[in-house]
Design goal:
By secondary structure, this protein is an alpha/beta fold. It has helices at 3-11, 15-46, 58-64, 75-122, 125-130, 133-174, 176-223, 225-230, 234-284, 288-333, 396-402, 426-431, 447-452, 460-469, 473-477, 496-510, 526-540, 575-581, 584-629, 636-674, 683-714, 721-750; strands spanning 355-363, 373-381, 385-389, 411-416, 419-420, 433-437, 514-518, 544-548, 560-565, 568-573. The strands form 2 sheets. Strands 6-7-8-3-9-10 form a 6-stranded mixed β-sheet, sandwiched between helices. A 4-stranded antiparallel β-sheet has the order 2-1-4-5, with helices on one face. The two termini are 71 Å apart.
Length: 752
């Protein structure tokens, strides 16, 4: 698509506006020329010098002749009225021309954005994977506006040329000799302005780059806001954005300076030309009367022409400034340099008859030399579950992405009931599939709209049923506005388990024929995992299901398990069959559960050390508190000293508990890193971690209460001795509770 075809291809979508813009431009130019020329006889008539018109230019005599039929005393009024009417018509057509031009520009900008969005919806996902979102938003925003402005400026440029042509014709009709001289003099202005136009084009290219960098940097910061905060990189990011903003402002300022300089330079050069014309005209016209009429008329029209030339140069500068954006948008909208999938016309079946066959599937990512999938041969019968397991980089997610045609195989084919997947209409293929992944996306709308997304006409009953079966109804009804509650950007107002259950409800309401689950329960707490797993079982019942699993305990009931390694399937069978083979799957299974046992021992050891330290401090604290409660001390000074010691000991115990929690989190993270099979620990270890976490939370709450009470007593803020004793008694009971909790949990842990 050439630059010219891109511009006029969009402009031709609005033939009426294009035609009206030209008509208003031409008629406005005529009215401007006639009105300007009429000013001369009106001025001469009012000052009593209309005798000069007899020797004046023929065009003046022609314009004056219609008024000769009127009585002499009415002629000036009639001529003045005619000038006012003509100028009013000129301004009216100018306003209408501006209106149609602005409407055309807005329509063009909207068309560019819609064409861009249509292309983004049609192009393969591989394009989105390698293209930065900031670049896309910049092209759909600032660059599209600049292209629309280019087209609008070119139309205004054409209209301005019409106006200038009318004035030049008038000037030639008055004196062709002076017009030749003016053309030679003004050519210097044109050469000077060409330098500004060339500079404007260069600045326009720099402005496009600066705008792209700013949009890209700002979007990266917004999308990574959580990481920025957790890494304490706010100042660094602000500095980066500051540099982008400064560069953008510098480019815009230079561009504005360049545009602003065009007018003054043109004006100075034009005035110089005018003075030269006055001097030269004395040598052309010997008769002073003829010179007066001709020169007056000529200068009036020329004065009206010069601003038109200045505006013409400004428009040329504006077009040159925004023209680089046309190249950017042309490349963005072009479909010849982007991957698009071949789509068939057969509707995808509502129910499978046989199943899905991955027939010798080979796949390589664009630009990669090596194959990611190497001859995958699998069959997934209807109504059954196939689980894909293996280490990171084995090709599990890549194979799953081929089923909804997020990409097409480089070799081989996927058939559904014997029909090549590429022969089906792409929309019907994807509507027949429900996808639930660990990276759930939710829109910044209500719960209702998120569940019903993609299912037009979903009834209220279907909505509630899907939420109930997804174990989401209970938490939805507790939200402030129930199903109409906004959930924030990407569902930020919900927990991970709640987001997963909404995604499952969305899949349930769409009633998919095929289900794809990509580690949908990873990184969830035990309660959320249990609810999500139960919802998944409801969703996958009697459906053809493809599961990607890292945690082997979640797929033991799958009909088939395919073990993948380095893009190949190395084992296929049920859980029992694969364990009996004692091959790669059995090795993964033993490693995963052996790692769990070792990690469980490590977690218990950490707890035992913490328990010993806490109980050692509690022995002393409990003894001191007992003395205080039972009032066995001889002096108030001794009592105050024991209270202060207990207060400080409680603070140290709280710090110990915080270190214990940090240690548990670190061990859990290290386990996940070492366990290359996934993102979460196994159920037994998860339960132990959860027990430790709940205990720690409970103990920290008790310790905070103890610290508060002891501080209250230390500062002697109790209103009475009874209140003081009561607070010490509560502190004593809390200490006993913590001691018993640790002793019981330590004994239970050591039996594991």
């Amino acid at each position: 698509m050439s630059k010219r075809r891109l511009l006029w291809g969009f402009a031709r979508k609005y033939p009426a506006l294009m035609f009206l813009s030209v008509v208003f431009g031409f008629t406005g130019a005529l009215f401007a020329g006639v009105g300007t020329t009429l000013l001369v006889p009106v001025i001469l008539r009012f000052v009593g010098q209309d005798a000069l018109l007899k020797d004046g230019p023929p065009i003046l005599q022609a314009l004056f002749s219609p008024f000769n039929a009127l009585p002499e005393e009415y002629q000036p009024i009639a001529m003045a009225g005619a000038v006012i009417v003509v100028i009013a018509l000129k301004n009216l057509t100018g306003f209408l021309g501006l209106y149609t031009s602005s409407k055309l520009q807005r329509g063009l900008a909207a068309d560019l954005r819609l064409s861009g969005c249509q292309m983004l919806l049609d192009v393969d996902l591989s394009y989105h994977a390698r293209t930065r979102t900031g670049d896309i938003t910049n092209k759909l925003g600032a660059e599209s506006n600049r292209v629309a402005s280019t087209i609008s400026s070119m139309i205004k440029l054409f209209m301005k040329l019409l106006s200038i042509t009318v004035f030049i014709v008038l000037l030639i009709s008055i004196s062709w000799q002076l017009t030749i001289i003016v053309a030679l003099l003004l050519s210097t202005v044109v050469v000077l302005n060409q330098w500004f136009v060339t500079r404007a084009r260069t600045l326009g290219q720099q402005l496009s780059v600066a705008s792209r960098d700013y949009s890209r940097g700002l979007l990266d910061m917004l999308l990574g806001m959580a990481l920025v905060r957790t890494s304490a990189m706010e100042k660094t990011e602000l500095q980066k954005i500051k540099s982008f903003v400064q560069n953008l402002e510098d480019r815009q300022l230079m561009s504005q300076f360049n545009s602003a300089a065009v007018g003054p330079v043109t004006e100075i050069a034009s005035i110089t030309c005018l003075m030269s014309i006055v001097i030269i005209s004395q040598f052309i016209f010997k008769d002073i009367e003829a010179l007066s009429a001709v020169l007056l008329t000529y200068l009036v029209i020329l004065f009206r022409l010069l601003p038109q030339l200045s505006e013409l140069n400004s428009l040329r500068s504006s077009v040159a400034n925004t023209l680089p954006s046309v190249d950017i948008i042309e490349d963005f909208l072009s479909r010849t340099n982007k991957p698009f999938m071949r789509a068939g016309d057969r509707p995808f079946p509502d129910h499978l008859e046989q199943g899905i066959h991955f027939d010798n599937i080979r796949f390589a990512y664009e630009g990669a030399d090596d194959l990611t999938l190497k001859g995958i041969e699998l069959f997934l019968p209807k109504g059954t579950t196939l689980a894909l397991v293996g280490g990171s980089g084995a090709g599990k997610s890549t194979l799953a992405d081929l089923l909804p045609r997020f990409a097409d195989p480089s070799g081989g084919k996927i058939t559904v009931d014997g029909v090549d997947l590429r022969d089906f209409a792409l929309g019907t293929v994807r509507r027949a599939m429900g996808i639930v992944s660990q990276d759930t996306f939710l829109f910044n709308t209500s719960v209702r709209e998120n569940i019903a997304y993609g299912t037009a006409g979903a009834t209220e009953e279907e909505l509630y049923d899907a939420a109930r079966r997804a174990n989401a109804l209970e938490f939805i009804e507790q939200l402030p506005r129930g199903f109409d509650t906004p959930i924030g950007d990407r569902g930020v107002m919900l927990s991970g388990g709640q987001r997963q259950r909404l995604a499952i409800a969305r899949a349930l309401i769409s009633k998919p024929t095929i289900l794809i689950l990509d580690e949908a329960t990873s990184a969830l707490d035990t309660v959320s995992e249990r609810l999500v797993q139960e919802a998944i079982e409801n969703l996958s019942r009697d459906r053809t299901t493809l599961v990607i699993a890292h945690r082997l305990s979640t797929i033991q009931n799958a009909d088939q398990i395919a073990v993948m390694e380095k893009g190949k399937v190395i084992e296929v069978g049920s859980h029992g069959q694969l364990l009996a083979k004692n091959g790669h799957y059995a090795k993964l299974y033993r490693m995963q559960f052996a790692a769990e046992s070792q990690q469980l021992v490590t977690a218990n050891e950490t707890f035992n050390r913490t328990s010993y330290e806490i109980r050692s401090r509690l022995n002393v604290t409990i003894g001191a508190l007992q003395l205080l409660v039972e009032d066995w001390l001889d002096s108030p000074e001794e009592a105050q000293e024991l209270i202060e010691q207990s207060y400080k000991s409680s603070i140290r115990m709280l710090s110990t508990m915080e270190l214990f929690e940090d240690s548990l989190q670190m061990q859990k993270a290290l386990y996940r890193k070492g366990n290359k099979g996934g993102n979460a620990v196994t159920p037994k270890l998860t339960a132990r971690y959860e027990t430790f976490t709940k205990t720690s939370y409970d103990v920290r709450g008790r310790l905070n209460t103890m610290i508060g009470s002891l501080r209250f007593v230390v500062d002697d803020l109790a209103d009475s001795a009874e209140e003081r004793v009561s607070m010490l008694k509560q502190t004593y009971d809390s200490a006993l509770y913590i001691f018993d909790t640790f002793e019981t949990l330590e004994s239970a842990g050591n039996q594991v």
